[in-house]
Amino acid sequence: MASNYKKTMNLPTTDFAMRGNLPKNEPKRLAEWEEDHVYEKLQEKNKDAKPFVLHDGPPYANGPIHLGHAQNKISKDIINRYKAMRGFRTPYVPGWDCHGQPIEHKVETMLGTEKFNQLPTEKVRELCRKMAVEQVDTQRQGFKRLGVLAEWENPYLTYVNDYDATDVEIFKAIFDRGAIYRGRKPVHWCSHCHTALAEAEIEYGDEVSPAIFVRFEMTTVPAGLEAWEGKLWVDIWTTTPWTLPADDIVILHPEADYVAVVHDGKVEIMAQALVEKDCEKFGYGEVELVRGADGEPWSMTGIELAHNKYKQPIFGDQGVEGEFVYADYVTLDDGTGIVHGAPGHGVDDYLVGMKFNIPVVMPVDDDGRFYKGDELGTGGPWSGMEVNEANPKIIEWLRERGTLILHEDINHSYPHCWRCKQPVIFRATSQWFVSMDKALDDGHTLREEALDELSKVAFYPPHAVKRIGSMVEGRPDWCISRQRNWGVPIPAFTCEDCGETVVNDATLDAVIALFRSK
Fold first, then answer.
1. What 8-state DSSP symbol labels residue 98?
2. 431-452 as b/e: b if 16+ CB within 10 A
3. Over the stretch 101-122, which tens digit does the pLDDT of each residue have?
4. pLDDT at 176
5. pLDDT exceeds 90 at position 2
6. Which region holds residue 265: left if phi is over 0, alpha if psi is between -120 and 50, else beta?
7. Mean pLDDT computed over 418-444
8. 240, 368 in Cβ contact below 8 A?
9. In degrees rounded to 5, what are phi and psi of residue 250?
10. Domains observed in the chain
11. From CA 186, how far away is CA 362, in angstroms rounded?
12. Which residues lie closer than 8 Å to 414 by C-beta, 6 or more apart?
């Protein structure tokens, strides 16, 4: 009976097959597009029309395409086809990012870290280039299978010598304007990949870290506390115990009031706003404050306490001292209102250290391990130990000496390397930077020029400008150097005899000419 219903319906007659049979028909259709030069004919048809150019942000040539690649390329193809049908000329030049950490990391993953680290630089570069060439073709075929129309046989590839030369030309243009400098300051450092990372190469994920309250013994006496000389301490809070060997400063809020709490025959300085909360957390019982002759609690602001000294928490018995400083970024929400500072391990600490002429101490090597030795600038008792491995040992060391007040674990957002996904550390190293705030040859800063250019761009939706605008406004100086084998190095030279770094127009022009000649 069911078959009889077909005769009662008025169905259209069509040559279309009942099934799409895509595995067979799709490659055939794409091959016809290529043979008929559909992309080229589309450009020829609209050659005299107004151009619409969609710049292709390049994928890394480090593996087969995935869903993210497909979404990216298909979305662009839809936009280009729509614009072409509206009569625009739509040239679309795809490209690939063929240098840098992603490709080198892929080669390391294939070989294994131990074997990879044993290879000479020339062999690493050879393997990276081979992978880039292979993966460019693999991805190109994948994008063609998606039906994307583009100049597939004429892409831009960052490993070609002309592209390298252009890189150096841009570097030279920025250098000649006075925006490039070399400095030793804290940057995101990946101990696994052995390289500095820019802000854009950082991903954030939750990590459990030890938060500790520690008392540092003071070596100077603030006015009004003379009766307590030899019994004075300052209480700090930190979530990175492993940075204590690099401690140089304790940082207070400039305008906050600090008081002196009497406990167990000693006096501990902390923020007045946090006394009740902290003393309850520490189990100090009823709060007793040091009072002056007028009966009022003794207090000083962060500015007034500046330049007092204390025993460095690890190397204090060797005569090493730290200094009280102040900065607006210290908050009174948690902790003691006083944070320990290591200018070698944090940008904020570095900047306030520069303001107060505090030296940068860096006891950690490229592998994230403490340098060996007993003096400041090494790991002391934890020499040769990986920093996170040292955390619990440092905490126990402080507990044994009676300077640990409290240890609690916290879950917080922490920076990770975008490629190997491992947690990174802040570490002061010698790197090359592009200054965001130095006045350039025309008197403007790079930050000002970038914000001015953003004002000339039409964003859809309009509020999208706020996201990139806030990134430009808050961006620190851009770290442009990387400790990698595969990529365009900073075109600077170092004298083997005197150690002087040489970079000028003559050396840059020579490097550009060398690339162009290849």
1. -
2. bbbbbbebebeeeeebbeebee
3. 888 888 988 999 889 989 999 9
4. 94
5. no
6. left
7. 89
8. no
9. -115, 140
10. 2-159 (3.40.50.620), 169-200+422-517 (3.40.50.620), 203-417 (3.90.740.10)
11. 10
12. 204, 205, 206, 207, 209, 423
Give strand pairing partners of 407.
Answer: 212
- Cβ-contact 228, 221 below 8 angstroms: yes
Report how far residue 240's alpha carbon sits from residue 449's, in angstroms, rounded to the nearest whole number: 37
Which residues neighbour 257 within 8 Å (Cβ) at sequence distance 6 or greater?
Answer: 271, 272, 273, 299, 300, 301
Give the C-alpha separation, 398 to 235, whole Å. 13
Exposed/middle/buried for 272, CB within 10 Å: 0-12, 13-18, 19+?
middle
Q: CA 339 to CA 302: how far, in whole Å?
A: 12
Which three-class secondary structure state does DSSP give residue 213? strand
Q: What share of the chain is helix, strand, coil (3-state, %, to 5)?
A: 40, 25, 40
Pairing relationship of beta strands 202-217 and 195-197 according to DSSP bridges = unpaired
Assess contact for 338 and 251: CB atoms under 8 A.
yes
- What's the CA gap between 232 and 267, in Å, rounded? 5
**Residue indicated by tokens 């060797």:** 318
Please state the three-class secondary structure of 10-55 as a single string: CCCCCCCCCCCCHHHHHHHHHHHHHHCCHHHHHHHHCCCCCECCCC
C-alpha–C-alpha distance, residues 409 and 422, integer Å:
20
β-pair partners for 369: 386
Provide the token pair at 292. 């002056």
Residues contacting 10, CB < 8 A, separation 6+ = none
The pLDDT tens digits for 372-420 are 988 888 999 999 999 999 999 999 999 999 999 999 998 988 999 988 8
Spatial distance between the Cα atoms of 155 and 174, rounded to a whole number of angstroms:
26
- For residue 461, say if its preceding peptide bond is cis, omega within 30 degrees of 0: yes
Q: In this structure, are residues 217 and 233 in contact, taking their beta carbons and an 8 Å threshold?
A: yes
Structure tokens at 476: 């620190």
Q: Residue 94: count other Cβ atoms within 10 Å of its Cβ.
A: 20
- For 379, phi then psi, to 5°, come to -85, -5
Q: Compute CA distances 265 → 233, 272, 289, whole Å.
A: 11, 20, 12
Residue whose C-alpha is closest to residue 454's, from 465, 443, 464: 465
